[in-house]
Design goal:
The protein is of the alpha/beta class and 346 residues long. The chain contains 11 helices and 15 strands.
């Protein structure tokens, strides 16, 4: 068998080639990939590279995936060939204090596909620990299965922020993570949710998915408008999903006194925060790194119909057009919420 793969060879350059066929260890399964979502972190690597790893090329991206099990290791009893699975990508060490405490997302020794130097899953065959592969029910498509990864981020953020029925929320950023956060909050019973973004197309999508209000930050002062929309006091919860120092600074000025700010996006660089204002308002500031122990709940939420994760897909591309998918994510940011790559026989 050949293992077709897509490699990044330099900034904004991709080529098709073959990857080594992985050997299947006792506790692993071999998966024939069917769908791979294009994450913003993958697009950032494709566009800008990774200065800390200048020698990593050629490199395989991708970590949002689903496929079909074709082989199981000798010790695997939970999966069988033919099972359709969503892949939880991070492989923790299972021995450090964070893993032992159940917070394996904080494992300092995690191997995360598409984070250098671990090749990603944008290849036809991938070997992965069976315990990190979750069987999909018949009611779910493999396309939906590939989107469990970003949904897991959103559901974890909502859970860790303490979201509950009766609260109100604002989400800064109407991209993929912002919209799945909206879906997660809606599924948890929140119905007063404002989404803020710079592009009307994304805001229209947010309203379609259940946002009670939307704010275009180009057209109005987003802080004043969000506070106004939430009774003049602000929302109970504010989620930063845009990964911007600008929106990160805005969160503490929007949130209600005694409320909670959850940083979900990758906000790079220094972000000045008014600590005195935070103290005066007695704000709880939380952060969220990936996810842990939530894939089964995320799959159940989609399978039961409580969350329509497929509704965020903007465009699907065959594997042969993977380079165009990445270029479109860069050049069409205003309209591209989520791109997904379909392997040729899916």
């Amino acid at each position: 068998m050949t293992n077709h793969a897509v490699y990044v060879t330099e900034n904004r350059k991709m080529s098709h080639g073959e990857a080594e066929m992985p050997a299947v260890r006792d506790h692993e399964v071999l998966i024939r990939m069917k769908y791979c979502g294009v994450c913003g972190s993958d697009v950032h690597f494709y566009e800008h590279g990774e200065p800390e790893f200048p020698d990593v090329y050629p490199f395989i991206l991708g970590h949002e995936g689903a496929g079909e099990v074709v082989e199981v290791g000798a010790a695997v009893t939970t999966l069988a060939p033919g099972d359709r699975v969503a892949i939880e990508p991070g492989i923790p060490c299972r021995t450090c204090e964070w893993c032992a405490g159940g917070r394996y997302n904080l494992c300092p020794n995690v191997v995360f596909p598409s984070a250098p130097r671990a090749h990603g899953i944008l290849r036809e065959y991938v070997a992965h620990p069976a315990e990190m592969c979750f069987k999909l029910p018949d009611s779910m498509s493999l396309e939906e299965g590939a989107l469990i990864e970003p949904l897991a981020v959103a559901m974890t953020a909502a859970r860790e922020a303490g979201a509950r029925i009766g609260q109100s929320a604002a989400i800064l950023g109407g991209g993929c993570i912002g919209l799945v956060t909206l879906l997660a909050l809606r599924a948890m019973g929140l119905d007063r949710i404002t989404v803020v973004d710079l592009h009307d197309i994304r805001l229209d999508k947010a309203r379609e998915l259940g946002a009670s209000a939307v704010v275009n930050a180009r057209a109005t002062d987003p802080i004043a408008e969000v506070v106004r929309l939430h009774g003049g006091t602000g929302p109970d919860l504010v989620f930063e999903t845009a990964g911007s120092t600008i929106t990160a600074r805005q969160t503490i000025r929007m949130v209600k006194r005694g409320g909670t700010v959850m940083i979900v996006g990758n906000v790079t660089g220094e972000t000045p925060l008014d600590l005195q204002l935070m103290t005066n308002k007695e704000i709880t500031l939380r952060t969220n790194f990936r996810y842990s122990n939530i894939y089964p709940a995320a799959i159940d939420a989609v399978a039961s119909g409580r969350i329509d994760v497929g509704s965020i897909i903007s465009r699907a591309y065959p594997l042969s057009e993977a380079p165009r998918a990445f270029e479109d994510c860069i050049n069409e940011k205003a309209t591209m919420v989520k791109a997904i790559i379909r392997f040729e026989d899916a």
